[in-house]
Input
Amino acid sequence: MTIEIADLTRRFDRTEVLRGINLAIAEGELVALLGPSGSGKTTLLKIIAGLDWPDTGSLTVNGQDWLAKRAQDRRAGFVFQHYALFPHMKVRDNIAFGLTVLPRRDRPSAAAIRARVDELMRFLQISALADRFPAELSGGQRQRVALGRAMAISPAVLLLDEPFGALDALVRRDLRRWLRDVLETSKTTSIFVTHDQEEAFELADRVVIMGAGRIEQIGRPDEIYDHPATPFVARFLGLSVELPVRLRAGRVEAPGLDATALPRRAMADGPAMLFARPADLAPVPAQDGPLRVAAISSTGALLHVQLTDDGGLAVETEVPRRRGLHLSLGQRVTLRVEAGQVFRDGAPAETPAETPAADSRPVPLRYEHSSKESLR
Ligand SMILES: Nc1ncnc2c1ncn2[C@@H]1O[C@H](COP(=O)(O)OP(=O)(O)OP(=O)(O)O)[C@@H](O)[C@H]1O
Output
């Protein structure tokens, strides 16, 4: 089912919770809505479900106006974190529920419902739980049953709101893989809300990053991971080190910074901001380096190495333990940047002008700013 959302807005009192959402979802796609708390993810999902209505905008599914349909007429399946199973019903009856309450003209026969439930339980690998009550299930098993209940009606779209939020990390990982297989096989168009980056990136065909009621970026997981389109997305995805730099002939430069590994940018010369993940910054011992090692702590495989300059700037880096053993407190270093994103005035970064492999000319470091100004 193709879903088209256009110019959707929603406000509660004076708070604009959705500020013009435009999103098209293709048949069979699995889309993750990812964003910090309060960014409007659940509100958008509820509007698609028919549990809330927008102030303006449109929502069409396969060309039909869903805003003109009641929730029960939309054939949307839900799996919510706290949407409990019916405690007095066995697993098989919970799964059958959506079919048994259909209007008589649409309702399959009792035998057909039983067959559909058996088939679904086999597909979801929960046949052994058929005669248990919800209280006799683990949290992970309950969510599998909840998915079965949502899928029983052959939903036009499956909506999942933090479906694994209440489960521990190991069970979550297991269920994630299971869910991906199930949705890939069933080809159900699905939208799920999460604030867990790993979950979104592992599961989704496309990720929608939301911030303060707007869509900041839509893309395939690796596209978004490698090329965050805005400073907001960069920070949200862990590019937490922000360094003022200068662009010269598409190259990123700053005193003590070796950014030759970055692709050239099709951007005019001038000041810019480089955003990078701590793991993509490597301290390199250098007698005249503008930075000093201020602290080293270990989490086992990784060393967290904090660097400062004479002006009090702090830069977090993360180094694999074996590569960081030569570092010592107080040592002078320069910084090698292995990956990062460049923004100018908060504007989306330009696409790289060329790949780094295509241009391996070394660019000398320049030291024309004082270190205080340059790396703050
Ligand atoms: N019924 C409501 N009345 C008033 N404000 C609401 C209502 N529902 C949501 N909000 C507000 O709208 C904003 C967005 O909420 P929403 O639940 O959509 O965010 P979210 O991105 O799903 O967050 P979370 O990850 O915490 O669930 C929040 O500031 C919330 O307080």
